[in-house]
Amino acid sequence: xxxxxxxxSAPDSFITLEKKYxxxxxxxxxxxKQTKQMAWGNAVVLSPSGDNIKFNTxxxxxxxxxxxxxxxxxxxxTVFPTRGLGMxxxxxxxxxxxxxxxxxxxxxxx
Length: 110
What we know:
alpha+beta; 3 helices; 19% strand
C-alpha cells in the first residue's frame, strides 16, 4: 500500500479535484490494465495528532506486489489528466510525501 500525504491550502477543494479528475482517470486505467494499481482512495484528515503532521489529506494506492508499488509501471499509451493535476498543484503547499507499507494482517468482522 502506498500512502500519499498531501498538504494544500484548501483540503476540501483538493479532495473535490481528486474526485473529479483523478478518480475517473485511475478507475479507467485500472479497468484497462494500464497500471498495476488495484485500488485507490482518498480522505481529509479530520483530527491530526503528533508533532510532525504536515498534511491535511491523504490518498492511498493498493498494489499486489512490492515491485508494483515501487515501480508503479504505466502503459506508455496512458494519457494523464494534466488539467486536473495542474489544478491540484496550484493548491498544494508542499511536495507530496509518500510512504510504502506492507499490509501484514487484516482482521474484519465480515
